[in-house]
Structure formats: C-alpha cells, structure tokens
Design the sequence.
C-alpha cells in the first residue's frame, strides 16, 4: 500500500511514492530533466504556465507507475511553490500565466496597502505586511488587467490548481490563505478587509478545505489520465516551506527546519501570534494549526547563502569539488584569524529590511590569510547570517530547541553545520527526506492511513546529530560580534 506525493517547484516537478509499511521511498521521478522555463517579459516579472506544471505531474506519475502499481496508491499529497497566483475561468482554464513567487511587480502595491490599511492593523491582524504576496499580485491584475480580472471565476495557489486538475473541485486551505496574506490571525477568519481594500470580489475565493485531511478525491477524468483509482483521497496540501518543515517532523514550538541551497531558509514553529514590526520575517499558519492548538510558522529567507559558496567555487577554486572545498576550508581555524565574509550578494534581503548591501569581505590580511581562510570565512559568514535571522525569530517568541535539515547542500559541510550549531547553541538533526516524500507522508496522515503524527514519522530516521563544538565557541562568538558590528 502506497501514498503519492507531488512537489511542484519553479524548477521542476517531483513525484515520489511512499511505501506505508516500511516508510521508505518506493519510486521517484523528477521532470523535466532540465529546469522549467520562467517567463520574464519585463524586469522583475516571473511567470509560468500552470498547465506546464500539470504536464510534468502527469509525466512523473507515469514514470513511477512503471515501478509500482498505481492502483495501490491510497492517498495523494501536494506541495508547491508558495505565493503564486493562478486565475481560472468557469471551465477551470487558466486565463493567464501564473505570477509566481519570485515576481516582484506588486511590491509597491503591498507597501501602499500597509500604510493605507494602517501598519498597526496589518501587524495585529495579518502578522505581516501585505507585501508582494498573492493578494497583492491579484491587486496588480485588478489594476492593470481589468478585463481579464472580470473573467476570473476563482483565483488559487499553484498547489490548489494541481488539486483541481486531479479532482475537478476548486479549494484552498487556511494555511494557503495565510501565505497569500488573506488570513486574519486575530479574528481567526479570512481577512476580508484586505480583499475589500484591494477590490477582490469575495465570490472569487475558493472554498476552504483542510491542509491535512481529505479535501477532495481523484476524479474519473484524472483517473483515466493518471492511472490512479477514481475516488482516491487528495488529503494533504502545503506550500513548500511549511511542507519542508512537516517533512522533517517540525510540528511543535521550538522546532526549526532549515535548508541551505542557493538561498537559505529557516522555518520555526511557535504558538505565539507576534508580528515583526520591521517585517524581516513572515508568519503563516502551519500545516497542523487548529482552532484548539495554535501552530504558526515563522519564515526567514536569506537570498545570499549557498550562492556565495558556488561563486567561490566558480571564481576562486574551480578545480576543486565541493567536498574538496570543505577539506580546504578545514585547514583554517575557527574565526578565520579575523577574516569576515558577508553573503548578501543576491539581491535585497528581507531580513535586513530590504537592504541590498552586497557580498563582502572584511579584515583581509595579505600576509596571513590564504584561500583556506576565504573558504572557511564564507561558510562561517553564512552561519552568521542564519544566526542573525534566528535571533530575529527569537524576538517573536521562538524558543529554539532543535534544528532539523536534510543532509544536502550546505548541510553536507561539517564546518557549516558545526558552526551553526555552536552559534545557536542547538543540536542539528540531519535526515534523508524531501518535499515530495513529505507530501506523501502528509497524505497518509490526512487520509487516516497513519493514525497519528508519531506513526507518520516513526520511520523517519535521523542520519546524524551535530552538537555545538566547545573548542570553537569563543572564536566564533568573537567573530560573530565583529560581523554584527560591521553589518
């Protein structure tokens, strides 16, 4: 017996199958084999065709169906790129390409909404600025494409669209509304005051369905296309960052999920609805939030993290592999003899209140520092950026107890993960999982195939635990203090 997880990213679509008995991955497929295109008709725009995602969902399901019997799939889960906007007509056909997460055309509209609605009201009720999120993207459509807006029957998130294609039914979750900045945390309801301000008609909202729970079922049409049984529950949906946390069993206050790819993300769970007045981090409903037990996800994104490591690889040591770079970095001492690096060279940083200071290096001694120092200083600088963001999250009530991450990218480096553990005085647990498997686990929980979260994650084995290094602590604390002074 299996469940199937679908992960709709902006680069690719991954489909994985979870064997419920063993908790292991029975089959997996990623499509396309090269990155999906992103259309950028104008500067700062980013769009994708929703039916392109559906095409690759079908290809992925077909691929895994060559390994397992799709009729043995008992539930389906979906995770997706957050904050995108999909607009469909009455027949469910997209009226335009999706305005996806990295499109920034609505920044000014969000900033204006923050001021005109009132900063205090937004922070009290939304825990965020309207910003460049889904509601603001739809406001841009209203302002700039009014004829198209008039044809919209429903607007939805990317994952909602895939759920619709699988079932023929349109819905969204409370978690999804919160990521679109359309959830009122104070009154525990849809934030209709935002919709009214932007001129969003209430009849264009999808019905609310569970994030974890049976929201809809595979239709006869989708069954014919996919080979999945008609009536199979679609029982989980979540944006990629809440789902990444879910996939790592980050469900309770004090638990944190982290990723370190091109950019870095820290997602911590809290039960305190407290806003960051500077909007350096964002708060959403977590996937397991209920009226009886509040669970909020605080999201920190740092654009310039792993990209600094890859820049050094391309421009300083192209002859070295990443493992060899880590070995080279280990030749330098903790604190790098005063050499500091700043990883903020990939655009404006929200955690720095949308400043774009760029990447930099400080304290370079031409008679003392070597390439080893540069490589280690880069990884320490990234760890410093994570620590800086985690401190912001602590101001909002996050009581950090454990950091969980997939054993991939930056977390393959012993220097980075030990530096982060030492700076945060926390244990880091590393796992072998991903978003599509997380969605498959969520589908099992939502369909009742696993009776509890404990059963859902009993097969998720920790590969390694990283603890603070007391021998590095004094040097790292001193280096971080200097790093902050010069930020």
Sequence:
């Amino acid at each position: 017996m299996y469940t199937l997880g679908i992960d709709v990213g902006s680069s690719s679509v991954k489909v994985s199958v979870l064997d419920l008995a063993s908790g292991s991955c029975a089959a997996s497929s990623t499509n396309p084999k090269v990155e999906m295109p992103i259309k950028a008709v104008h500067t700062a725009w980013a769009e994708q065709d929703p039916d392109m995602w559906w095409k690759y969902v079908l290809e992925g399901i077909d691929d895994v169906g060559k390994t397992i019997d799709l009729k043995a799939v008992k539930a389906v889960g979906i995770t997706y790129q957050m904050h995108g906007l999909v607009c469909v007509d009455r027949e469910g056909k997209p009226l335009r390409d999706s305005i996806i997460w990295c499109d920034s055309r609505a920044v000014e509209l969000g900033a204006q909404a923050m001021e005109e609605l009132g900063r205090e009201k937004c922070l009290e009720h939304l825990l965020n600025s309207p910003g460049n999120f889904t509601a603001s993207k739809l406001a841009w459509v209203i302002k700039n494409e009014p004829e198209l807006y008039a044809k919209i029957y429903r607007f939805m998130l990317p994952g909602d669209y895939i759920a619709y294609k699988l079932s023929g039914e349109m819905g969204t979750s409370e978690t999804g509304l919160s990521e679109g900045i359309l959830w009122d945390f104070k009154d525990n309801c849809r934030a209709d005051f935002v919709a009214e301000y932007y001129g969003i008609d209430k009849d264009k909202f999808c019905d609310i369905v569970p994030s974890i729970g049976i929201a809809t079922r595979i239709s006869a049409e989708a069954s014919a296309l996919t080979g999945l049984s008609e009536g199979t529950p679609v029982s989980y949906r979540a944006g990629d960052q809440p789902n990444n946390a879910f996939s790592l069993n980050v469900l309770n206050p004090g638990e944190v999920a982290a990723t370190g790819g091109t950019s870095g993300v820290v997602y911590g769970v809290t039960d305190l609805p407290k806003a960051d007045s500077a909007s350096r981090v964002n708060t959403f409903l977590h996937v397991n939030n209920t009226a009886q037990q509040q669970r909020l996800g605080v999201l920190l994104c740092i654009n310039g993290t792993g990209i600094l490591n890859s820049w050094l690889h391309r421009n300083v040591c192209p002859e070295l592999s990443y493992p060899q770079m880590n070995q080279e970095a280990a030749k330098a001492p903790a604190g790098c003899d005063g050499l500091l690096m700043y990883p903020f060279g990939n655009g404006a940083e929200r955690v720095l209140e949308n400043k774009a200071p760029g990447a930099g290096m400080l304290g370079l001694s031409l008679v003392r520092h070597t390439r080893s120092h540069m490589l280690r200083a880069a990884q320490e600088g990234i760890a410093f950026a994570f620590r800086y963001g985690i401190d912001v999250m602590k101001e909002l009530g996050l009581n950090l107890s454990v950091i969980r991450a997939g054993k991939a990218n930056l977390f393959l480096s012993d220097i980075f993960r030990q530096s982060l553990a030492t700076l945060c005085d926390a244990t880091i647990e590393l796992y072998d999982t991903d978003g599509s498997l997380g969605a498959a686990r969520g589908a099992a929980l939502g369909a009742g195939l696993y009776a509890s979260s404990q059963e859902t994650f009993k097969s998720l084995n920790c590969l390694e635990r990283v603890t603070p290094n007391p021998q590095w602590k004094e040097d790292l604390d001193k280096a971080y203090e200097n790093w902050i002074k010069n930020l």
Summary: Residues 164 and 193 are 27 Å apart (CA to CA). The chain has a mean pLDDT of 96. The chain is about 35% helix and 25% strand. The radius of gyration is 22 Å.
